[in-house]
Amino acid sequence: MANSNLPRRIIKETQRLLSEPAPGISASPSEDNMRYFNVMILGPTQSPYEGGVFKLELFLPEEYPMAAPKVRFLTKIYHPNIDKLGRICLDILKDKWSPALQIRTVLLSIQALLSAPNPDDPLSDNIAKHWKTNEAEAVETAKEWTRLYASGA
Amino acid sequence: MGNIGSSSSGGRRRRSHHHHHLQANQVVPPAPPPPPPQPAAPPEAAGNRYVFAAATPYPPPPQYTPPPHYYQYSAYYPPPPPPIPAPLPAPYDHHRAGDLGWVPGGRYPCGPPPTSLMPYVEHQKAVTIRNDVNIKKESLRVEPDEANPGHFLICFTFDATVDGSITVFFFAKEGFDCNLTSTKEKVLEPITVSFKGGLGQKFRQPPGTGIDFSMFEEQELRKEGEMEVYPLAVKAEACPPNDNGLTGENQKLGGLNSQITQAVFEKKENGEYHVKVVKQILWVNGTRYELQEIYGIGNSVDGEFDGNDPGKECVICLSEPRDTTVLPCRHMCMCSECAKVLRFQTNRCPICRQPVERLLEIKVDDGASMVQQYGGRHLEMTNNAPTADVEHKPEGQEIPAI
């Protein structure tokens, strides 16, 4: 994949992500494809994901920033808006995308989604059902999964 | 799904630093205020809503003849081209079953793209109109008149490039050609004070001429109901620079150039009143302009652009300075090149997602000194009737800091 002709916007965003990373978030471009980012998000405090280190991949399509980045969790996570394949149900990644948003804001939004699961608009029906019928138990499962899969070890 | 981007979770929009409100002006024809109550402009009229004094890139129409009362440039518009189908990016729909993976550079599994035709969006260039006297509307306030307990005096800061006069009207009604009359002249007479040219001047109404709020009903002071009388109107008039025939010309064009600031008095919780500006009007060479705010313009005109300031750069390329405003929402957030690209991708404002009707390019180079002195006031003209035109957005709409 050619890294020449990389839009200035992507170069600037990358520079700023590296020089001023958002708290609890790191994103670095792949060496062979500057549109592909390895991302790590720390589980927010006061959430079932606290203490976890979640890996994601982020790709900037050709149309970016007119089209949203593609983002997916690589670390297994128990969350009503994230499915078993790591796909994320988040409006700004779909119909609410705006070119004024950036990699940084997208990742901050995902971090916020971890703090505020929305079982009323689920991606994983089973997890959402669990969340709605027995939230305490669902939160326990999410904590357990965080320990099992996102311990960072 | 999560709704980080929806308007209900407005954390992104509520951040108030990076908050620069400056104003652009709209022309309203010198129709006799008060306007008769009339319904809002029908949708089909919206297409002709803004009329800009933009000479380029459109050639003057051969049939152009100036109408008698005000400048109307609607004939500059070329007929809109047929709608262009937008090259929509493939949506990434997680709800749909299918293989998950995307291959960098490859195509994604997707549902049928929403078919929509992009409306034609006009791209206009703004002209700057000189404003000789400007009352800084944030500075407008009342102060107690120590010599007359219970009375309050109108105070504000203003800039003037020429000599002129300021008149404070209480319960003022606007008539033809931006002439103001007081509807309670017997109780509170208009007060006129002359001034010399100069920037950052302080105005304080002479003691003894202030308002005693206890004499009036709260509704009256807040201007509830009756729409045409403003509890406070301040008119700042510029004298012509000299008398060598200019007075005559000004008279011909509808009197002295002036700025009118219309305001209401709002009672705070502690019982004190404060001034809230509702509208500012410019009367320049016989044309009435209404000032409207452009959100984010201050970012682009204050000081130098060094190419690496998140507050000044185009939100799309992050490289060029912002010079294009989206209308009708008035978010100045893009450079003209990105605005051109955006037109073919979406019809939503990048900041607020409202539909885009027009793109207005504001180059600040020509009037740079004026922009800095007067806080970046730019004019755009519309031939709309006042009732259909006035758009007061709630305060607090702003360019989010990203």
Automatic annotation (TrEMBL), chain A:
An example Gene Ontology molecular-function term: ATP binding
Enzyme class: transferase
Catalytic residues in the record: 89 (glycyl thioester intermediate)
Family annotation (Pfam families): UQ_con (PF00179)
UniProt record similarity statement: Belongs to the ubiquitin-conjugating enzyme family.
Function statement: Catalyzes the synthesis of non-canonical poly-ubiquitin chains that are linked through 'Lys-63'. This type of poly-ubiquitination does not lead to protein degradation by the proteasome. Mediates transcriptional activation of target genes. Required for postreplication repair of UV-damaged DNA and for adapting root developmental programs to suboptimal availability of iron.
Oligomer status and interactors: Interacts with yeast and human Mms2, with the RING domain of RGLG2 and with UEV1A, UEV1B, UEV1C and UEV1D.
Protein name, as recorded: E2 ubiquitin-conjugating enzyme
High-level lineage: Eukaryota, Viridiplantae, Streptophyta, Embryophyta, Tracheophyta
Automatic annotation (TrEMBL), chain B:
Pfam families: RNF157-like_N, zf-C3HC4_3
Basic residues bias locations: 11-22
First-tier enzyme category under EC: transferase
Coiled coil: none
Residues covered by the RING-type domain: 314-353
Pathway, per record: Protein modification; protein ubiquitination
Composition-biased stretches (Low complexity): 1-10
SUPFAM superfamilies membership: RING/U-box
EC number(s) from the headed UniProt entry: 2.3.2.27
PANTHER family linked: MAHOGUNIN, RE60872P-RELATED
The protein's name in its UniProt record: RING-type E3 ubiquitin transferase
The species this protein was found in: Acorus calamus
Lineage: Eukaryota, Viridiplantae, Streptophyta, Embryophyta, Tracheophyta
